Amino acid sequence: MRRREFIMLVAGAAAYPLSTSAQGNVRRIGVLAGGRSSDPESQAGYQKLRQRLGELGWEQERNIHIEYRWWAGDPNVADAQAAELVKWGPDVLLAIGTPSVEALRRRAPTLPIIFTVVADPVGASFVQSLGKPGGNITGFTTFEPEMAGKWLQLLKQAAPAIRRVAAIFNPRTAPMILMPSVKAAIPAVQLQLVPAPAHNAAELEQAISRFAEQPDGGLLIFPDAFPLVHRQLILNLAAAHRLPAMYPFPSFVTDGGLMSYGVSITQLVGRSADYVDRVLRGTRPADLPVQQPNEFQFLLNLKTANALGLNLPPTLVAQADQIVE
C-alpha cells in the first residue's frame, strides 16, 4: 500500500504540495480520511464538500485551500498523515473517521477539529457531551447503538433460514460501542453471534472463509474505513460463499452487496462543511453541538438477492428507500 495518496482523481481538482504558501486571505482546510483517494465514494465526498463550501462562499484557489490525506484503512498510516497536515498550518481540520480524530488530536491538541463518520465521540473522549462539546473538537456522529437491532432484523427478514451471523470488524478501527447493542439484539432474532475480527485483507479473507465452512450463515459488516477499503474483497467473498450480508453504507449495495441500512458518507461529509464554515468565520467548536444523523437509508439489491436464492418478502421490499436491480 502506498503511504500517501492524493486527491488527483477528481475532475477539476488539484493536489497541492504542502510547501505551497497561502496567498492573501486564503484559509487552509486540512482533511484526514480513512479511505483511498481512488475510491469513487471518496471522490464523491470530496466533490460534496467542495460543493457545499462553495454554496457558503468558499472556493478552492480563491479563498480556501483544501489539503487531503488518506490512510487507506490502515491506522498505522494515520499518524504520519496527521503530522503532515498539522505541519502545513491549517486553520481548521476535518477528520473523517474515529482514527482520524485520534491522530489529529495527538498532533494538534488546540487546533479546531470537525469530525464526521464517528460513532461515539463522548465514549472516545473527543467531546464532553453532545450538546456541549467543551473543547476544540465537534462534528457529526454516524450511527446510533440501537441501529444494531435494525440491522439484524432486516437481515433476518431477507434471509430467514440463517442461524448464525458473523460480525466482521477491525478491532483497531471499528466503533466497538455497537458490539453490546448487537449482542443485546441477537436473542430477538434467534441467531448465534460469531465475532470475526480482522486487521488486514488476509485475515479478512480467512475469517469469512472459515465462517462459511458451516451452513446457514450471514454477515454483519461493522461501519468504518476498513471494510470500505476492502469493499470489493468482502463482496466477492460473500458472493463466492453465498452469504447474505448487511452492510453499513449504500456503496456496498450499489457495488453488488445484498442490503445496507445507514447513513450516506457523502452526505455526512457535505454536512460537515457547515461547521467548517462556522469555524472559519470565528465560532469556537465548543459552541457547536455535536449533530446526530438526520436520515437513514435502506437499500436492497434484487439482483444479488436472486443470485443468493432469496425470496424477499414484499413487506421488506416496500421498506427500501432504494432498489438496485
From TrEMBL:
<protein>
    <submittedName>
        <fullName>Putative ABC transport system substrate-binding protein</fullName>
    </submittedName>
</protein>
<dbReference type="InterPro" id="IPR007487">
    <property type="entry name" value="ABC_transpt-TYRBP-like"/>
</dbReference>
<dbReference type="Pfam" id="PF04392">
    <property type="entry name" value="ABC_sub_bind"/>
</dbReference>
